[in-house]
Backbone:
């Protein structure tokens, strides 16, 4: 995984179920970056932001993640 993902790489998060072709996707997209790569299944990210504001995440929420 470290060959594909690198520390500091930008990622975008969208709540599961929201289609990428949705007309209002820009207002629902969270931006973050990779802080630490633990193993093949675990990556630690920085606090996500939306329009330069921190967005709290909850343990039961699921997101689709896109690597840029």
Residues:
């Amino acid at each position: 995984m470290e060959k594909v993902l690198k520390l500091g790489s930008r990622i975008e998060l969208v709540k599961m179920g929201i289609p990428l072709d949705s007309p209002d996707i820009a207002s629902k997209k969270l931006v973050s970056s990779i802080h630490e790569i633990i193993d093949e299944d675990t990556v630690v990210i920085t606090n996500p932001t939306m329009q330069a504001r921190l967005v709290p995440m909850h343990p039961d929420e699921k997101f689709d993640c896109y690597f840029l």
Summary: The chain has a mean pLDDT of 87.
